[in-house]
Amino acid sequence: MSKTILLLTPPFTQLNTPYPATAYIKGFLNTLNQAAVQADLGINVMLRIFSRQGLNDMFHLAEQKGIASYSANSQRIFRLKKAYLNTIDPIIRFLQYGDPTLAYNICDEEYLPQASRFEQLEEMDWAFGTMGIQDKARHLATLYLEDIGDFIQEVLDPHFGFSRYAEKLGRSAVSFDPLYDALQLPLSFTDRYLVEELELLMQKHQPSLVCLSVPFPGNLYGALRCGQYIKEKYPDSKVAMGGGYPNTELRSMNEPRLFEYLDFVTLDDGEAPLSCLIEYLEDIRPLEQLKRTFVLHEGQVKYINQARTSDIAFSKTGTPDYTGLSLQRYLSVIEIANPMHRLWSDGRWNKLTMAHGCYWKKCSFCDITLDYIKNYEPISAALICDRIEELMAQTGESGFHFVDEAAPPALMREVALEILKRDLKITWWTNIRFEERFTFDLCRLLKASGCIAVSGGLEVASDRLLNLMQKGVSVSQVAKVAHNFTESGIMVHAYLMYGFPTQTTQETVDSLEMVRQLFMMNVLQSGFWHMFAMTAHAPIGISPSAFKVVKTGPEKGNFAENDYDFEDPVGTDHGSFSAGLKKALFNYMHGIGYDFPLQDWFDFRIPRTTVPPNFIYKAITNNEGRMPKPDQKVVWLGMQPYLVQQVTHKKGKQQEQNYLVVEKHTESVRVKVPRPLGEWLCTIAQLAEPQRNEKELQFKTLQSSYEEHGLGPFEPFLHSPVFAQVREIGLLLV
Question: How far is the C-alpha of 211 from the C-alpha of 21, rounded, in Å?
Answer without folding.
Answer: 11
